[in-house]
């Protein structure tokens, strides 16, 4: 290991140690009533204000994998990698539309997960179980991907062993077990300050060293023009514009359906907090646009990945361009950026298991204290499962699974998002629609090869329309097609079931549940654990 790498490693360890200490101390932060209750351990007491929610949700949605994967995609494919920018612009008006209603109904009824809401809205344990399983399956590889970001940093510093990764996750598991959602909420402040500082310095310093943005874009254009076979372009080709648009829109729909997105929202103390955050969170989209430009900067700087691991492009660029001390700060930002979302995701997955599988099917009389214990233990298992994905399996497997995760979480859209707006759908129609969307989505993904990895199946999400017999070279996002099929089937099945007067589930919610706000007499306080 070179002297420069030693400096980078020492700075990274110091900063990591500082945030780990914050994570343990977070159990005392804001005077929690009783940590052995899911409202406290899993939702931070449902009391976070505007600033905490902004950092928490931002830290949750803009992950370490975003930090390394989006520029890596721009580095490899050019303009197509910028799809992440419009989708994070589109997502907030959508979230504004439905999540304030979810907050209200959840606070009146004590819902902790999206599946809790579906259970009460449609009177269907089966539908709630499907939503819970879908959420857990979609979240697991997402957690593993956070490790991919840390792994890329460790490789760049010359640490090829998995042991640093294992130690980092043991620390993460320990303070999440103790402090619950308060730990990532507190650490998110440090994470975001570091990332904002690194990106601001990066977009000023690196273009200055490379001769300006004009030179960077010229270098990227020449690079893609000379590639044989073609790998991408600085502007979208006509054949991938439909895929770009549907991928951006589909990803926006999927983002707020992930359980961890809902967890951050339910932890806020009022509807106004959510409204303010939906207005302010697009600031992160601006940051994401700057992060994406790192891909073009890496091309202009002549940066190359370690082996075939494209995710090492950004760490290699930092290592190449910055003095060692600042590269260490940047690496710490990526590492800490992985810990925040990984903690929230594991809590969200654990809450789904506890509320919608354990309590529903295994122990119906579980006390709040019992639920908290189960959730804590499951959050540990979820983290270790994600760790095994990286240590035992090829990281590409996690990337492929996360790709599938985006498609499958979209299939909860009719039950969760539309369920917040209307009770028109029949409960069994939603189950049938979910199954149809899953089936068509899996089939489409199965037919997509990945020429870069040599995989014949599950190699991407861009489905070629020529496979449907159409005379075109256009592609379309698989998840978008699958959820359209899901919706069509759910609508048709609802019409048929209503015409046949098939028994529907009872709706345990009322119209005014969806507009309740802080101070509403029916919004209960956090119960005392027994």
Q: In order across it, which strands form the biggest sheet?
A: 1-2
CATH class of the domain at 3-19 and 43-394: Mainly Alpha
Structural class: mainly alpha
Mean of residue pLDDT values: 87
End-to-end Cα distance, whole Å, is: 54 Å
The beta-strand count equals: 2
Largest sheet: 2 strands, antiparallel
What's the CATH architecture of the domain at 3-19 and 43-394?
Up-down Bundle
Fraction of helical residues: 55-70%
Q: CATH homologous superfamily name of the domain at 3-19 and 43-394?
A: Sodium/glucose cotransporter
Give the uncertain stretches in residue-range form.
none
The run of helices and strands is HHHHHHHHHHHHHHHHHHHHEEH
How much of the residues is beta strand, in percent? under 5%
**What shape does the CA trace take?**
globular
The number of helices is 21
CATH topology term of the domain at 3-19 and 43-394: Sodium/glucose cotransporter
Describe the model.
This protein is an all-alpha fold. The protein has a domain at 3-19 and 43-394: Sodium/glucose cotransporter, CATH 1.20.1730.10. Helix content is 69%, strand content 1%. The chain has helices spanning 3-25, 38-41, 50-61, 64-77, 84-109, 114-122, 125-156, 163-179, 182-210, 213-226, 241-255, 259-266, 271-280, 282-301, 313-321, 324-362, 368-391, 395-409, 413-416, 427-446, 478-499, and strands at 462-464, 475-477. α8 packs antiparallel against α17 (368-391). It is globular, with a radius of gyration of 23 Å. The mean pLDDT is 87. Residues 506-530 are annotated as: Disordered. One of its GO terms (molecular function) is transmembrane transporter activity.
